[in-house]
Amino acid sequence: MRGFGEVAERLRRSTVQVHSRAGRGSGSGVVWSADGLVLTNAHVARGVDLEVEFWDGRQLPARVVMRDARRDLASLRVAAASLDAAAAGNSSSLRPGELVIAVGSPLGFAGAVSTGVIHSVGPIRGMGNRAWIRAQVRLAPGNSGGPLANAEGRVIGINTAIINGLGIAVPSNDAADFVRRGPRPSLGVTLRPVSAGVLILDVDPDGAAAMASLKAGDLLLLALDELYDALDSGQPALRLRFLRGAPSSGRLPVRETVVRLGERAAEAA
Predict the structure, then answer these.
(1) Which of 28, 114, 144, 172 is catalytic?
(2) What is the pTM of this model?
(3) Which of 129, 165, 193, 247 has its CA 20 to 30 A from that of 5?
(4) Domain 2-77, CATH number (from 2.130.10.10, 3.20.20.70, 3.40.50.620, 2.40.10.10)
């Protein structure tokens, strides 16, 4: 299968490692355009002092341009030109059973290749109503942010997680929309679903939730999917009900706040 090997080699040249400048590898990325735009996962690009390593060993400092943790995407910019950019495919045309190729740096092995097939495409419970790609490919820590491509070598997803043994990828059409239009509306918080609603674990001090006086430890009284639907509704402001404090003495009063999404849209719920 010489042709398949050539496809994989082209993908490897478009795949990078994303490091913290301290030297510890944190994930992968894909060269999205030849002028220095790299896409990766938002959870890979958490640091402010990042470095991108290319297939030929070059290492360049990278600047975070945008982050969208709801779609787990981030764009980086490096000072380079004429890079080996990947070709983007149309993720809306994917069908279960199609052959796919994942490239990344699992456990520090740069440019490692894994193959499999599309398992399904659609929403995942607890992750909103947008579609995700599920693929039967072998991924490991370090694959995050790397490309998932079809048999022609066109990138149809950005690998982001492993759920129930399946690789989860952001569809390439979502990635293209992120590059073109920027992050989706967000609260600027880190969340964890619980039985009574959604618990706020962390609040971006410059985000919309902080502007509405929400704090870490507050419990939002709605399901995560309901929150995502509200954020995607196009409304400029959301009225949220929440609980605050430990229920050590009686029931806690239900509070309300209005979150104005226009305050900031660079972080995600």
Answers:
(1) 144
(2) 0.81
(3) 165
(4) 2.40.10.10
